[in-house]
Amino acid sequence: MASSPSCLLGLLPPPDLAARVEDFRAGLKVRESTPHVTVKARSGLSPDLAWVEAARRAVAAHPPVTLSIGGARAFRNGSAVYLQVHSPDAVALHLRLLGVLRPAQRFGYEGPHMTPHLMLVLGRRGVDVSGVLKEAQAAFADLEGTPITFAARKVWLMRKPGPGGLYVPVEAWPLA
Fold first, then answer.
1. Phi, psi of 44 (to 5 degrees)
2. For the segment 31-88, what is each residue's pLDDT rounded down to a tens digit?
3. Domain ranges of the chain
4. What predicted TM-score, i.e. pTM, was given to this entire model?
5. What is the top-level taxon of the source organism (predicted)?
6. Considering the chain, what percentage of its residues have pLDDT values greater than 90?
7. Residue 78: what are its φ and ψ, rounded to 5°?
């Protein structure tokens, strides 16, 4: 049975921060998806892409998204080490997309309580999350006191080929 691709919608960080994230991952010898902040996870984003036009219209009606990227954290359940993101705008865009797309099922982390983040490393077999967190806190210590703030002017449709694949940006949609 062939596995189907999956999509998400994300905001890309500035190139210099993306390069830092990739360098950090390379030092740990891990491969992850292109650095991004997810604004709509894959629930309701079917492989047939029937949802694309509605999502594209919602994005086109939304103003640019201001994000502040701070220091490293880990989710309590050990699922990932990430850079914290403060962005009421990203949450507002997320809620707009949920309202337009109305997925039949949503992930528990979707909704007004969404935690925007820029994932560094997923917690999986062979990954010492607490060790990676300590390394990330050292590598990104400068962001604790001085977060990087920027305005995202595009939302990226990101796609991965199936389980075990990595999300990569495939199409940019301009914000209003």
1. 80, -5
2. 999 999 999 887 778 888 899 999 999 999 999 999 999 999 999 888 899 999 999 9
3. 6-174
4. 0.91
5. Bacteria
6. 71
7. 75, 15
